[in-house]
Amino acid sequence: MTSVQVDKQHDGNEAVQAPGESGEGEGYQRGLGARQIQMIAIGGAIGTGLFLGAGKGISKAGPSLILAYAIAGLVIFFIMRALGELLMYRPVSGSFSEYAREFIGPFAGFVTGWTYWLFWVITGMTEVTAAAQYMKYWTHDSVPQWVTALVFTLILYAVNLISVKLFGELEFWFSMVKVTAIVGMILICAGILTLGFSDAGDTASVTHLWDQGGFFPHGIGSTLMTLQMVMFAFLAVELVGVTAGESKDPKTVLPKAINTVPWRIAVFYVGALIMILSVVPWTEFQPGVSPFVHAFEKMGLGVGAAIVNFVVLTAALSSCNSGMYSTGRMLRDLALNGQGPKFFTKLTKSGTPLIGTTVSAAMMLVGVWINYQWPGDAFNYVVSFATISGMWAWFVILICQIRYRLKADRGELPQSTFKAPGGIWPSIFSLAFLVMVVVMMGIDKDARISLYCAPLWAVLLGVSYFVLRSRDPQGAAFAKRK
């Protein structure tokens, strides 16, 4: 079944498949192999939130940030298993909006598709902002931050005109660099703790995790307030669902990729932070400074700091590259379902949604303007926007999994071959956790701006959908292919 070829939402009537569409690839080339999907899944959540945002989290919560990452990581695993259950029920490109249309309603699909597109546009702004900040390590402010952000945006736009197979290969190596660097850093820190070499060897100790004011130096409340930044670090982990329409063997590859989530979080987030905070006391880290780069500088490994800075630069560009990939696909999915301009449906000969990618890249240039206007606060502004829009996809995934599982258990739909453990209860717990994060964002004055903007975005979407329904009632009601 392609896109949401559903006239009646599986209420006992037959699903309607659009004429001329027989495969689940929706016209895309299935050019992403198992090796590439695995590395996209592993590297998808290793980006700015960990490499740059963790500095702010450490300064706010101290060592207890480790616990925040661990608990949030468990919720992310529940979300990914919920997504996996849906993907094995019906693997399609643009999965979040597809499932929203089927299990919640056409308006929910419309909102989800456009909101996820907005999320990646804003994330692209975030990542080029971070990349521009990392470049200061070498330029020392000799090049304006907005100029660097502009150059990176244009380069990544050019990269995304390549075929999906080459995109997957680039992402494979981007992710390989990130993974290798983090594993190497963990091993170096472990060597410092056990063998005592480097400038930090004499003072490095796991006791740093509790002897600098305790594990919760600013109280549990401060730890809770970091959840917005922590959840931002995990945004994009669901990107593997967008690749379903271009994976060579989705029903084999995607479950394996999703099952890497627990050890991915344990090693790259929890393990890395434990090692860094054991080698360098948490009190020495500052917001806006990568804790990885700072840790190597404190060790006296100047070359190591330069290498790590290059790696985190790669991580930011990799995430932005993924953002351009997903935005083009999301716009095409909306257009295929009559919920976006029809010109977004066109593909190049290599299977790339050129117009959607071009429009998205143009929108990302707004990030360059943000860097020009507010070079110091740009990262914090766009993080707040990205978090609330990205979390919407998680809400939708969990709600859809609950509704799907209830229908499947009643025999109204076929059972998934990759069931989420615990049925609907982990999804209910995860929904409650996400609601708590939203509440924390409302309390945090730095993150509150995203909640102010959410109603404006909702009104804009509501008006747009009303116009769509008045001009094309059939297209607004269910998927319609031209």
UniProtKB/TrEMBL annotation:
GO cellular component: plasma membrane
GO biological process: amino acid transport; transmembrane transport
Coiled-coil portions: none
Topology of the protein relative to the lipid bilayer: Multi-pass membrane protein
Sequence ranges assigned to domain Amino acid permease/ SLC12A in this UniProt record: 37-470
Subcellular location(s) per record: Cell membrane
Main subcellular localisation: membrane
Segments traversing the membrane: 39-58, 64-83, 103-123, 143-167, 179-198, 218-240, 261-280, 300-320, 352-372, 378-402, 423-443, 449-468
Keywords in alphabetical order: Amino-acid transport, Cell membrane, Membrane, Transmembrane, Transmembrane helix, Transport
Name of a matching Pfam family: AA_permease
Superkingdom of origin: Bacteria
Region (Disordered): 1-28
Family, per entry: Belongs to the amino acid-polyamine-organocation (APC) superfamily. Amino acid transporter (AAT) (TC 2.A.3.1) family.
Designated name of the protein: Amino acid permease
Species of provenance: Streptomyces antnestii
